[in-house]
Design a protein that fits this description.
binds adenosine-5'-diphosphate, binds aspartic acid, binds magnesium ion
């Protein structure tokens, strides 16, 4: 048994436990109706049109698969059985794990491609080459983002519609049409297939334009409509990618994640119901995989149990990739992006940053939570429970190893692994008159913040004075939080128990991350020294609860210089590359 298959077999055991933990979701709301219907896009491809009306019950869905073979696979069997005739162990493999593993000879890889990876025709060609190569040794599910910048444009269109700017909305949709059609013209040589994909692009954009026209008339865009508009980018890139793959002979089918990822109704930041999502993925994707068909799934979007489209949050296609990986119990999830994996710092800010070969889930999760754009903060959630490895690789240099993230990370790595900066924060300082009042002030301040409710990004343990407590909140909530604290401490301020309540609005967090951080002797002193040498003041500092991170609060204008100075001082590059202790 290969390492991959062994790992997979072990995870199946774990997974049955995980499934039982998610049991309550099923009890809460089992979808009787899927809310989506499929229509042929071209032979070999299917698009799924969202419909808010009722549809066939999920369990009786007519699962399509074999028709996808005809156009794209020269060796396809035109009489292949449709998946409605599959035996139970194929349609519901979780029930018969042993048999599934006998059948599944190839490892399963979920490969997510980000916006720059699918930004234009040459990029899409690269992706096609990567996917084609992967299909030789693996079963593959592809998850795609919108082309770079497209989601921003769509969000902008929704705002322009709300403001009644019909011309701006039209200009955005025209630009998007041209961009996607230009790529299609380069990628697709068959006139009929080109026509089909162009029609699909136009239909999606018309759908968006209709939603915007409604919004213009009402001068209002609900969160639900905003999600439907924002999610169009992935609904354009997935059929385009599928058409490009089909053109190069890869058996594939474009599928909208509204059909697969079942979420709650928190529009703009929806959370998946994993148990329901697993059921959908097993029923819809497993039969395709068993026929060697690559599913090309839209990232970023999902739908409620009633079929109302949602989005998982900006930049969340990473999360979509790992949701797919967890739902299908993949052997590996690979996020393909525009850098060589996770670097020791954001390369746009720290020129000497270098790739980290191996990291632990915790290190990667800290890095994502504390601002590294390379990973969406929720990316790790779905994988950690099941122990599925995550790789981050460069679409533009696929021969390089990138970063591998596993539960153990690097066995030899001790000390600092990476630095990250996050800058839209505000620091609130409450200063008591007597040091002995500080614990009580802290307790009341935390309770007040919880009532705002404001997410507390940091409660630094070390402020400059012992009679002072410092709290870091997102910039957007700074004024509300300060107001709530003023109210809470009105009488204390009046009678002098509290000397001052101050807000520093533009601060940044510079965080040092490493699983075995405190093997890196003198870390705090060395960073403070490096920052002092650059005349950067540290406003507060805090050790992360897991002891795998340490954060310094600096003025926003100092963030870049602080990252460079700390990176140089800690020699993160050398440490990460060699795995040596600092
Ligand atoms: P994608 O569209 O592929 O999801 P993103 O733009 O969301 O890509 O994330 C990749 C970008 O994240 C990189 O281009 C890089 O500028 C930025 N980034 C920030 N911190 C890091 C880091 N520690 N390592 C690598 N990239 C980082
Ligand atoms: N297209 C979405 C966004 O720009 C999701 C993603 O690319 O990850 O936010
Ligand atoms: Mg991203």
């Amino acid at each position: 048994m290969s390492d991959l298959s062994r790992g997979r077999a072990e995870r199946v055991e774990l997974r049955s436990k995980v499934n039982s933990e998610f049991g309550s979701e099923r009890a809460a709301a089992y979808p009787q109706q899927s809310g989506f219907s499929a229509r042929p896009l071209e032979s070999g491809l299917h698009a799924v049109e969202p419909s808010f009306a009722s549809a066939e019950p999920l369990g009786k869905r007519r699962l399509r698969a074999s028709s996808a073979n005809h156009a794209t696979n020269p060796h396809s069997d035109p009489n292949a059985r449709t998946s409605e005739f599959y035996p139970a162990h194929v349609l519901h493999p979780r029930v018969v794990h042993g048999q599934l593993h006998e059948n599944a000879k190839k490892p399963l890889r979920v490969m997510k491609f980000g916006g720059t990876s699918v930004g234009d025709a040459p990029c899409i060609e690269r992706v096609v080459a990567i996917v084609r190569a992967a299909t030789r040794e693996s079963d593959v599910v592809v998850v795609v983002s919108a082309m770079s910048g497209v989601t921003n444009k769509l969000v902008e269109a929704a705002s322009q519609a709300e403001a009644g700017n019909r011309e701006s909305v039209a200009a955005i949709f025209e630009e998007l049409r041209q961009r996607h059609e230009t790529a299609a013209n380069v990628l697709i040589s068959s006139p009929e297939k080109l026509q089909t994909i162009v029609q699909t692009i136009q239909a999606r954009l018309q759908e968006g334009a209709r939603l915007c026209e409604d919004a213009i008339q009402r001068r209002d865009v609900s969160a639900q409509v905003r999600d439907a508009i924002a999610g169009l980018g992935e609904r354009l890139s997935a059929p385009l990618m599928a058409a490009a793959l089909a053109q190069r002979g890869v058996l594939c089918e474009a599928i909208e994640a509204t059909e697969l990822v079942v979420t709650d109704s928190r529009h703009g930041a929806a959370e998946p119901f994993m148990d329901l999502t697993r059921e959908r993925c097993e029923a819809r994707l497993r039969p395709l995989l068993l026929q060697g068909i690559v599913a090309v799934v839209t990232g970023f979007i999902g739908a409620t149990v009633e079929g109302v489209p949602t989005t998982l949050g900006r930049n969340s296609s990473d999360f979509s990739g790992t949701i797919m990986g967890a739902a299908l119990d993949a052997d590996e999830v690979i996020l393909w992006t525009d850098v060589d994996g996770i670097l020791t710092a954001d390369p746009r800010l720290v020129p000497g940053a270098s790739s980290i070969l191996e990291m632990s889930y915790r290190e990667a999760s800290d890095l994502a939570d504390l601002g590294a754009k390379v990973l969406h903060p929720k990316t790790m959630h779905a994988l950690m429970l099941q122990g599925i490895p995550l790789a981050i690789r460069n679409t533009f240099a696929p021969e390089r190893p990138g970063t591998k993230i596993t539960s153990d990370g690097s066995s030899s790595g001790v000390g600092v692994r990476a630095l990250t900066g996050s800058n839209d924060a505000a620091l609130i300082t409450v200063r008591a008159t007597k040091v002995s009042d500080t614990p009580n002030v802290l307790r009341r301040a935390l309770a007040t913040i919880a009532g705002v409710p404001a997410e507390l990004r940091l409660a630094p343990q070390y402020s400059t004075a012992q009679d002072e407590i410092s709290l870091v909140v997102p910039s957007a909530l700074a004024a509300t939080t300060l107001h709530a604290l003023r109210k809470e401490f009105t009488s204390d301020l009046a009678c002098g128990i509290i000397r001052a309540l101050a807000l520093e609005s533009d601060v940044a967090l510079v965080t040092v991350i490493g699983e075995k951080l405190f093997g890196a002797g003198g870390l705090v002193g060395r960073v403070l020294h490096a920052l002092a040498c650059e005349s950067i003041s540290v406003l507060a500092r805090s050790q992360g609860s897991s002891r795998s991170s340490f954060t310094f609060v600096v003025a926003q204008r100092d963030m870049k210089a602080a990252l460079i100075a700390a990176h140089r001082q800690l020699q993160v590059t050398a440490s990460a590359a060699s795995g040596r202790s600092l």
